[in-house]
């Protein structure tokens, strides 16, 4: 599987990077004055009074004893409270005398790899307070190494006496590593490498992990069915909360020690629960009993240590018991998930479970360090197992995301192919429809021309032929009839020209055809045509009806009116375009008009194109009006 190869490659290169960093760490050993022994004085005290401005180590009451550094007594809880209800504390004084063999160089620093106290720390140089912690008492950044410049440490140079005061809860805390004194060249690399491994690397890894969680959460908001993205986002938050105690505390925390301890200690159980649900979603082997055990563990520990009420058990105080229980439950959980993942063939799940189990194994080693059973100058290594856990988590989600993107890309290819095929089908279908439509138009146009020629030109020629055969017409009448037939033929041909909604172009064509005939009969044509709105429905089929209607109007004037002048006008009336044909001939009674004048035929043609005709006649002449709608009438 590609994802399996990617997982192995990711873990391999991550391991190489970690080995390189560890080589850099162990290669940056500190140099200079190494103080590995000190005089120790232990005093039982109450509360946390601030340290004095000056302190003579010889004035301290008690018995001094020589100890070897690092000095880390085993934690031991002393039950009950001190006098007056104050917290029973203990003050540990570590005194160093710098003899002639320990002369601090110019620009020297004090470097302390680790100090442990659930309280406060103060350092006196030659009897004067030189450094003290100002953060929280419990979570006070003791995981960060101390790096203190000595340029202004004392009036006398170099300093001779160093006194370290550690005040802590009686029974816990009060540990100090060996102390180094040297210049920047001797101690700088060692300090920065240790600060990076103990504090900066856990912070960077958890912060980057949290950033990817925000991205996963945004993906989940778009696709709520993908629960893995939500579990991944929750895991990044839990990891960030868990790692906070590794790098926070150098400055005062925004929350109390009790709340900070509750969050960081209980987050171990939360991490077990979320990882368990995540692995279950990967290999789909769900054991409800195990889920309930982990859930009840988280609820139980979280409930009894919740710092809402006075007297609630502090999570930090019982953290050893909590950690032992969580390590046991977590180890069993991850061991089972390794088995279930391998059985389901989910290598990614098995890798994640292995990293989780490794983190608990190393976490058990860190518990020994925390309880001063092993050298306190060692590193907390469970953070690095947690980094491998983060890497596997990221690789799993990245693999799923890339698979989803690949699936989308493949779907797009299939969709594009289907779309191309559909477009080709639609194009072919459209071409067929256009061909059918073209043939239908040609057929309709052919039928229209045939019908018009049959009703117009053909009828006139047949009538003329019969009159000639029966000898009822002379040559002049024949010539006149033939001219009319020719005019009909020309109008039919003109109607085939595209007019593109332009009525004036159609009227201009009519004028060109009929004006010579009018002039030959002695009738003068007055052309008073103006711009009118375009007729969107006007095409060849409709133009022939208009030409026939107007031709009939001109023919009636020529045959019956006895007029000397015809006036053609255009305008707009009642929302219609009006074409008027007026003559100065003798009028007639419109109501008594028979079918001989062709008015019925004109009305029928006008009705076909959605218009109407009007006739007004009197002694001053006759006016014929053709009213055409600007917009196409429904049904036409």
Question: Keywords for this structure?
Answer:
636 residues, 12 helices, single chain, Jelly Rolls, rod-shaped, six-stranded antiparallel sheet, 17 strands
Uncertain ranges = 78-84
Tell the overall outline: rod-shaped
In the CATH hierarchy, the third-tier topology of the domain at 31-76 and 86-222 and 235-252 is known as Jelly Rolls
Write down the Rg. 53 Å
* Strand tally: 17
Note the run of SSEs as H and E.
HEEEEEEEEEEEEHHHHHHHHHEHEEHEE
What's the architecture of the domain at 31-76 and 86-222 and 235-252 in CATH terms?
Sandwich
Let me know the largest β-sheet.
Answer: 6 strands, antiparallel
Q: What fraction, in percent, of the residue positions are helical?
A: 40-55%
Q: Please count the helical segments.
A: 12
Distance between the amino and carboxyl termini: 69 Å
Structural class: alpha+beta
> Could you report the average pLDDT, rounded to the nearest whole number?
82
Order of strands side by side in the largest beta sheet?
Answer: 3-2-4-10-7-8
Strand content: 15-25%
Transmembrane segments: 7-28, 201-221, 228-247, 259-282, 289-309, 321-340, 347-364, 376-398
Domain Histidine kinase/HSP90-like ATPase: 541-632
Pfam families: HATPase_c
Protein name: Signal transduction histidine kinase
């Amino acid at each position: 599987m590609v994802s399996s190869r990617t997982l192995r490659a990711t873990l391999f290169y991550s391991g190489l990077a970690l080995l390189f960093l560890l080589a850099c760490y162990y290669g940056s050993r500190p140099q200079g004055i190494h103080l590995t022994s000190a005089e120790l004085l232990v005093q039982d005290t109450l509360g946390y009074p601030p340290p004095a401005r000056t302190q003579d180590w010889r004035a301290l009451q008690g018995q001094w004893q020589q100890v070897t550094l690092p000095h880390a007594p085993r934690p031991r809880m002393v039950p009950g409270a001190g006098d007056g209800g104050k917290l029973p504390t203990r003050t540990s004084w570590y005194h160093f005398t710098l003899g002639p063999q320990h002369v601090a160089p110019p620009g020297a620093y004090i470097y302390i790899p680790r100090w442990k106290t659930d309280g406060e720390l103060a350092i006196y140089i030659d009897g004067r307070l030189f450094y003290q912690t100002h953060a929280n008492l419990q979570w006070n950044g003791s995981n960060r190494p101390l790096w203190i410049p000595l340029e202004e440490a004392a009036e006398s140079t170099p300093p001779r006496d160093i006194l370290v005061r550690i005040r802590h809860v009686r029974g816990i805390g009060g540990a100090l590593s060996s102390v180094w004194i040297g210049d920047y060249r001797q101690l700088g690399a060692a300090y920065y490498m240790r600060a990076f491994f103990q504090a900066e690397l856990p912070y960077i890894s958890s912060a980057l992990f949290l950033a990817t969680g925000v991205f996963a959460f945004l993906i989940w908001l778009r696709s709520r069915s993908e629960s893995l993205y939500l579990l991944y986002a929750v895991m990044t938050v839990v990891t960030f909360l868990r790692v906070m105690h590794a790098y926070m505390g150098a400055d005062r925390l925004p929350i109390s020690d009790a709340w900070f301890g509750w969050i960081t200690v209980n987050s171990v159980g939360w991490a077990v629960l979320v990882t368990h649900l995540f692995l279950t979603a990967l290999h789909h082997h769900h054991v409800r009993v195990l889920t309930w055990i982990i859930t009840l563990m988280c609820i139980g520990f979280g409930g009894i240590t919740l710092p809402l009420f006075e007297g609630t058990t502090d999570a930090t105080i019982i953290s050893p018991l909590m950690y032992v229980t969580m390590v046991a439950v977590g180890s069993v959980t991850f061991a089972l998930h390794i088995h279930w993942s391998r059985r389901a063939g989910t290598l990614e799940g098995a890798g994640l479970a292995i990293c989780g189990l490794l983190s608990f194994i190393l976490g058990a080693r860190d518990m020994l360090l925390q309880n001063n059973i092993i050298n306190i100058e060692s590193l907390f290594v469970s953070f690095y197992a947690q980094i491998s856990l983060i890497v596997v988590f990221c690789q799993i989600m990245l693999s799923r995301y890339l698979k989803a993107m690949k699936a989308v890309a493949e779907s797009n290819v299939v969709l594009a192919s289907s779309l191309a095929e559909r477009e080709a089908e639609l194009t072919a279908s459209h071409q067929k429809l256009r061909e059918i439509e073209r043939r239908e138009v040609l057929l309709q146009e052919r039928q229209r021309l045939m019908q018009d020629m049959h009703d117009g030109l053909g009828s006139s020629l047949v009538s003329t032929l019969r009159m000639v055969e029966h000898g009822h017409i002379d040559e002049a009448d024949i010539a006149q009839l033939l001219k009319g037939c020719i005019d009909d033929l020309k109008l039919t041909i003109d109607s085939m020209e595209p007019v593109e909604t332009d009525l004036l172009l159609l009227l201009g064509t009519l004028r060109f055809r009929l004006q010579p005939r009018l002039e030959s009969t002695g009738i003068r044509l007055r052309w008073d045509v103006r711009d009118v709105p375009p007729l969107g429905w006007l095409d060849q089929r409709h133009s022939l009806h208009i030409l026939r209607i107007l031709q009939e109007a001109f023919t009636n004037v020529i045959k019956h009116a006895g007029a000397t002048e015809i006036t053609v006008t255009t305008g707009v009336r009642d929302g219609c375009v009006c074409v008027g044909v007026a003559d100065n001939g003798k009028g007639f009674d419109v109501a008594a008009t028979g079918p001989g004048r062709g008015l019925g035929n004109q009305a029928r043609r006008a009705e076909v194109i959605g218009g109407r005709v009007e006739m007004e006649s009197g002694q001053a002449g006759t006016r014929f009006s053709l009213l055409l709608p600007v917009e196409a009438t429904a049904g036409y």
